[in-house]
Specification:
Oligomer: single chain
Number of strands: 7
Radius of gyration: 17 Å
Number of domains: 1
Number of helices: 8
Distance between the termini: 33 Å
Strand order of the largest sheet: 3-2-1-4-5-6-7
Structural class: alpha/beta
Shape: globular
CATH superfamily: NAD(P)-binding Rossmann-like Domain
Largest sheet: 7 strands, parallel
Order of helices and strands: EHEHEHEHEHEHHHE
CATH topology: Rossmann fold
CATH architecture: 3-Layer(aba) Sandwich
CATH class: Alpha Beta
Length: about 250
């Protein structure tokens, strides 16, 4: 059974790996045996230290994921430093909060660029290398509860995460026959930088906690099992799913 979740010899690329959910997934993939490329615009110092202290292998690749220009370079640096990419985790994302009546074009475009445009074109570029190399591939997108719900005061974030859900299904339809699994994780309310304003608001925080059957905010490490499952041979016949890790939020 352990072989089903063994990633020894695999190379994983994780975007937004310096903190929060991306850091937790990177550590989990490394613990399962993968060599991990940590891609983002903030130096992932802590993530590197944790992985290497546990005997894992990783590589920091600095890149501004708001632009598509970096894609060829991050793939080249990863492939040269660790080997061909077997697993891609599109995790990097940003959020802007404002009433929809006042929401700006810049805040719309900034969020859509990082959250949906780059994940699609990075997936496209990585998938081409998988097909050309004849390798089975795994692509994992970080979706959101707002892939399934409307949210409040985050119009571009909701649109982008709804887009990620659609792209996940579309790419699964197109690439399953090419031995590339495309799935998404749907995190619930996690204690990360993106939710710090919500957690700081005692009224809103309590409203959220009241709806979560588990009775707590998620910790980034709660995503470890889902990430390894979707990256491993255990999920070879799993395609196009949105896997909630939400403490029961969607069940209530």
């Amino acid at each position: 059974m352990s072989k089903l979740f063994d990633l020894t010899g695999k190379v994983a690329m994780v975007t937004g790996a310096n903190t929060g959910l991306g850091q937790a997934m990177s550590i989990a993939l490394a613990d399962a045996g993968a060599k991990v490329s940590l891609v983002g615009y903030v130096e992932p110092t802590e993530t590197v230290e944790i992985i290497e202290a546990a005997g894992g292998t990783c590589l920091a690749v600095m890149a501004d994921l708001s632009t598509l220009d970096v894609i060829p370079r991050v793939i080249a640096e990863t492939s040269e430093g660790l080997g061909p990419i077997d697993i891609l985790v599109n995790n990097a994302g940003i959020i802007r909060r404002e009433d929809s009546l006042d929401f700006s074009v810049k805040d719309w475009d900034d969020v859509m660029a990082v959250n949906v445009r780059t994940p699609f074109f990075l997936s496209q570029a990585v998938a081409r290398t998988m097909v050309e190399g004849g390798r089975r591939g795994k692509i994992i997108n970080t979706a959101s509860l707002l892939s399934l719900q409307g949210g409040i005061r985050v119009p571009s974030y909701t649109a982008s995460k709804s887009g990620i859900a659609g792209i996940t299904r579309l790419l699964a339809n197109e690439w399953a026959s090419k031995n590339i699994n495309v799935n998404a994780i749907v995190p619930g309310y996690f204690a990360t930088d993106n939710t710090k304003d919500l957690r700081a608001d005692p009224v809103r925080s309590q409203e959220i906690l009241t709806r979560i059957p588990a009775g707590r905010w998620g910790e980034p490490s709660d995503l470890a099992g889902a990430a390894v499952f979707l990256a491993s041979p255990a999920s070879d016949y799993v395609q196009g799913i949105l896997l909630p890790v939400d403490g029961g939020w969607l069940a209530r």
